[in-house]
Design a protein that fits this description.
The complex is a heterodimer of chains A (171) and B (67).
Chain A (H helix, E strand, L loop, with lengths): L2 E3 L7 E4 L5 E5 L5 E8 L14 E10 L12 H12 L6 E5 L7 H16 L3 E9 L5 E9 L5 H16 L3
Parallel strand pairs in A: 5-6
Antiparallel strand pairs in A: 1-2, 2-3, 3-4, 4-5, 6-8, 7-8
Chain B lengths: L2 H37 L1 H17 L10
The chains are: A alpha+beta (171), B mainly alpha (67).
Chain lengths: 171, 67
């Protein structure tokens, strides 16, 4: 397996070149995270030019020997931002992140995601955070991140706002 | 219902369908990542090597971005 070691701002992380866009790191509590960016062109299917650049992000605890919910760890956000800086070397890319709501902490997750990206990413990224709600009351917290140098910036903003406002108009 | 309202409803349903699909994809990706780590010795070796390097290097230092 061919591997590449990457510079780290926070925890040291690696990606596996046989599985593109997958990164792993281990915290000082021995919790192993995987950050996965999966191609997801269907999200902006109305604008086919954008399709190759859209990725859904998952932040997954793949090993947790503590058996408890991972504690707050100040090294995780800069690690994620360092991974972002590698992933966004292709400036046209778009990351869409939907927060897990199964434990009713979706809104808090979205807030946390937004704040660390602002703190560590600075002006390098543009982010939009919004929500969709269905008739049963289920809420989907959706975030969208692009590089501030993204050449499709205006089109992406329109595509994302169409996705969200379509839901909000009747609410 | 007017044609404008029908269009709005269709757009809303399309948005919700995308959100539901994203949530389903997220759960599938999470399970896939966990299973892959359990069953893929190459991935376990990758983490083990990372662990060894962390032990050698000691506690990482966070460098805050320059404002």
């Amino acid at each position: 397996m061919k591997k590449q070691e990457l510079p780290s701002l926070g925890y040291r992380f690696r990606n596996d070149l046989t599985t593109p866009n997958v990164f792993v790191f281990e915290t000082s509590n021995s919790i192993v995270y995987e950050i996965r960016f999966k191609p997801s062109g269907y999200i902006f299917a109305n604008d086919p030019d954008l399709e190759p650049f859209v990725f859904e992000m998952s932040i997954v605890v793949i090993d947790n020997p503590t058996g408890k919910r991972p504690p707050r760890d100040t090294l995780v956000p800069p690690t994620l931002t360092a991974i972002f800086s590698i992933f966004f070397e292709q400036h046209e890319r778009i990351v869409v992140y939907i927060c897990d709501t199964s434990d009713k902490r979706g809104e808090a997750r979205q807030r946390k995601f937004s704040s660390w990206l602002t703190l560590y990413g600075g002006d390098n990224y543009i982010q939009f955070n919004d929500r969709l709600q269905d008739d049963s009351g289920e809420i989907y917290f959706v975030s969208f991140v692009i590089k501030s140098s993204n050449p499709y910036q205006q089109r992406l903003i329109v595509a994302f706002s169409e996705l969200i406002t379509a839901n909000q108009q009747d609410k | 219902m007017t044609s404008e309202e029908i269009k709005k409803n269709e757009r809303r349903e399309r948005s919700l369908a995308i959100a539901r699909r994203m949530m389903a994809n997220k759960k599938a990706a999470e399970q896939e990542a966990i299973d892959e780590y359990k069953n893929n010795p190459a991935k376990q070796a990758l983490v083990e090597e990372l662990r060894r390097k962390n032990e050698e290097a000691g506690t990482p230092i966070v460098r805050l971005p320059i404002p």
